[in-house]
Amino acid sequence: MLSTESAASDLQDRAVLWSIREIRANEVVGAACDALVAGLDSPTLRILAACTRAEADYEVPGILPAALDELGLTFYPVGSQAGQEAAARALAIRMLAGDLTPRELAFRIHQRFGHELDLADRLAELDDEYDMLDYGGGRTPAEVDAEVTAEARRLAQHPRVQAEPTDTPA
């Protein structure tokens, strides 16, 4: 069983990965179920966890922000700098957990953010290096994998950032 802190972190990470369309809504629902089992609880979290696979794609967008807010977690607006950094961090954590290979991490970062996200730009550069491996010379795939893994560790340790305010003063 996950600790409440791990479950909250996992829910937060899956929410941000969902917001960049890296994972499906039903994975967010699964994380909500895991959070309840771990001891987190709120009215909206229960509603989120009760969504079926068929409902998830339709219900998660309206429920997730409130569920995260009730738990003191952050909902990152789609396209926000803080959300992109949180997504890069969440992808790095997935790689370190064995859900992605180093090459897949570099590719996904490059595909999602190009060279526009300073925090993860080195991973985009390393994706370019993977592409060059096919032409010989230079480094070995294992050397590039090792550098991607080091970058993933750096990202995973990067402090979480708060979302930018979305309301403007009247």
Gap between N and C termini: 46 Å
Approximately what portion of the residues adopt beta-strand conformation? under 5%
The count of DSSP E runs of length 2 or more, i.e. the number of strands, is 0
Helix content: 55-70%
Radius of gyration: 17 Å
How are helices and strands ordered from N to C?
A: HHHHHHHH
- Average predicted confidence as pLDDT: 91
Describe the main β-sheet briefly: none
List unreliable stretches of 5+ residues: 164-170
Domain count: 2
Global structural class: mainly alpha
Tell me the number of helical segments per DSSP (H or I, 4 or more residues long). 8
The 3D shape can be described as elongated
Question: Topology of this protein?
Answer:
Layout: H1 4-19, H2 25-38, H3 43-49, H4 53-70, H5 81-96, H6 102-113, H7 121-133, H8 141-157
Helix pairs in contact: 1-2, 1-5, 2-3, 2-4, 3-4, 5-6, 5-8, 6-7, 6-8, 7-8
